[in-house]
Design brief:
The structure is a homodimer of 283-residue chains.
Chain A (H helix, E strand, L loop, with lengths): L11 H8 L12 H26 L8 H29 L5 H6 L19 H22 L5 H29 L3 H14 L11 H8 L10 H14 L21 H16 L6
Helix pairs in contact in A: 2-3, 2-8, 3-6, 5-6, 5-7, 5-9
Chain lengths: 283, 283
C-alpha cells in the first residue's frame, strides 16, 4: 500500500501561516469580507462531512458483512462529529446565535456549501468506497494544512479530525486496492465506480475569492495547493489497485457556492424532516 | 380481457344504504363515535390515494417509454385530486379547521391510515403495475359501493372518482395481461411482483369497529363485502395473464390503524419537507 501523504508541500498559504504564527487571528473581528470568507470556509468544511456522513450512514444495516457495516457506521459518526465542530465554529463566527444544529437542520439547498462529490448516491459498496477514498485522499492533506492555520480554533479542530481521517484514508486505500486488484467482477465494478465519480473530483481543487482571502491570511490553504499531493497519492493507489485513472479533466462544480445536484434536496428532506416537523425538539 | 366488475353484489351495507336512501345523513352531527368513524373512514380513503399518488409520481421522468411516463403521471394526478376531496371532507367532518393540505402535509406516520400495500416501494415497472392493478381492482368496487352511500357528499366524490378509476383499472388490467402473457422475461417479472406484493392485499378486506359503524349507517361498505368481487376479477385477469395466484393467505396489516412499514417515513419526509420547512407557504 502506498504510504500516507507526508504533507511536506510548501505553498503560499503555508508561508502566510508561518508569518502569522504565534498569534491567533480572529478575522471575524476585522474586515466584513474576511468574516464572510471565514464563515463560508467553515460551512464548506462542515457541510462536506455532514452530507458525506449522512450518505455513509445510509449503509447502516445494509453493508455486505458485519465488520464493514460497523466500520462504515463509525466513519459516518466521525464525520458527523467533525461537522459539529466546524458548524459550531461557523455559527460562532457568524455571530447571529445559530448553533451547529441550526446550521445543519435549518438551511435549504442553496445555502449548503458541500462538494458535489459527497452528495453522489451511494451506488454499490465499491462505489461508496471509491467515493470515500477520493474524498479521504483530499480530506487528510486539507486537515494537515489546517493544522497550521493562523486561527488556533481551526488548527485545534483539524488536529483532532486528522487522527480520525488518517484512519479513514488508510482503510479506504486498503479496500480500493483489495477490490481493484481482486476478482474480475470486483475490478470491473471499481473501475466503473472510478469512471463514474471522476468528474466530481475536480471541484475539490477549484478556488474562489473566499479561498483567496483565507489563504492570504494564513487561515486555510487554497484548494489548488492540495492538487499535486492528491494526484500523486491517488495515482499510486490506483496503480496498485490495477485501476486506470480516467483521462478527462472535466469537473462538475458549483457545490461550494451553493449550486447542487437534484440529490441534495432528497438528502435534506430525510435529514431535516424531524427538526422541521418538530421545531426545537430535544431528547 | 375480462369485463370490468359490474358491482351487482348486494351486501349488508347496500341494504342499509337503501334504507337510508333519500336522506343525506350528517353523522358528524350525531354520535361522537360515528363522527370518529367517519373521520377515520375518510382518512383511509384519502391516505390511500395520497400515498399511492406520491409513489406513482416517483416514476415521473423515469418510465420505460414516454407514453407510459405520461400515463403514470396522469394516474398519480387523478389520485392526488381524489385525495383533495376525501381529505377536504375529512377536515370538514373533524370540525377543527384542518384543510386537506393540513391533513396531507402535517400528520406524522402514526396518524396515516393508508393500506400498507400503497407504501410498498415501486420496484420495476412491472411491480408498479401489479401493485396498481391489485389496488384498482379493489378501488373501483369500493367507489361503486360508495356511490350508494347514505352520505350524499361521499356519493358525489365517489361518482367523480369512479370515472377516473374505471380507466385506471382498464389500463392496469391491460398491462398486467400484456406483460404477464408476454416474453419469458416479462412473465417472470410479473409473477415475482405478484408473489412479492400478495401478502399486502389481504388488509384491503379486514374491517374493524369503525368500518362496522359506517356500514351500519349505510355510509361505507364493510371491507369484507368487497372480497368476493375482487377475487373473481383478479383471478380472471391473472388467468388471462398466465400468472399463478399465490396460495398463501397471510396478510400484513396495521396500516389502516396507523401501524406502518419503514417506507412510509421516507415518503412523508420527501412529501412533507416543503410544508414543514416553510410553514403555510403559498404560491
Amino acid at each position: 500500500m502506498p504510504s500516507l501523504p507526508d504533507m511536506a508541500t510548501p505553498d503560499a498559504a503555508a508561508r502566510a501561516q508561518e508569518q502569522a504564527a504565534g498569534q491567533t487571528a480572529r478575522p471575524e473581528d476585522t474586515a466584513p469580507e474576511m468574516r464572510a470568507a471565514l464563515f463560508e470556509g467553515l460551512l464548506r468544511l462542515g457541510d462536506n462531512t455532514l452530507i458525506l456522513g449522512h450518505r455513509v450512514s445510509e449503509w447502516c444495516g445494509h453493508a455486505p458483512v458485519l465488520e464493514e457495516d460497523i466500520a462504515l457506521a463509525n466513519t459516518a459518526l466521525d464525520m458527523i462529529g467533525q461537522t459539529q465542530l466546524w458548524l459550531g465554529l461557523a455559527g460562532e463566527v457568524e455571530g447571529q446565535g445559530r448553533s451547529a444544529d441550526d446550521l445543519a437542520y435549518l438551511r435549504d439547498v442553496w445555502d449548503m456549501r458541500n462538494l458535489l462529490l459527497v452528495e453522489r448516491p451511494n451506488g454499490d459498496f465499491g462505489a461508496t468506497l471509491m467515493r470515500q477514498f477520493l474524498f479521504d485522499a483530499w480530506h487528510l492533506p486539507m486537515l494537515k494544512a489546517l493544522m497550521r492555520s493562523s486561527d488556533q480554533r481551526i488548527a485545534d479542530i483539524a488536529e483532532k479530525a486528522s487522527k480520525e481521517v488518517s484512519y479513514h484514508l488508510e482503510r479506504s486505500t486498503d479496500l480500493v486496492v483489495r477490490l481493484g486488484d481482486g476478482t474480475r467482477e470486483s475490478h470491473a465494478r471499481m473501475q466503473a465506480a472510478l469512471d463514474d465519480i471522476w468528474p466530481y473530483t475536480g471541484e475539490m481543487f477549484i478556488g474562489d475569492g473566499h479561498d483567496a482571502h483565507l489563504a492570504e491570511a494564513g487561515i486555510m490553504p487554497t484548494p489548488e495547493s492540495l492538487r499535486t499531493e492528491w494526484d500523486a497519492y491517488v495515482d499510486a493507489v490506483l496503480r496498485e489497485a490495477t485501476l486506470k485513472r480516467p483521462e478527462g479533466d472535466f469537473a462538475h462544480k458549483g457545490g461550494r457556492q451553493g449550486t447542487h445536484t437534484e440529490h441534495l434536496g432528497f438528502i435534506l428532506a430525510e435529514m431535516q424532516w424531524l427538526q422541521r416537523a418538530y421545531p426545537g425538539a430535544k431528547w
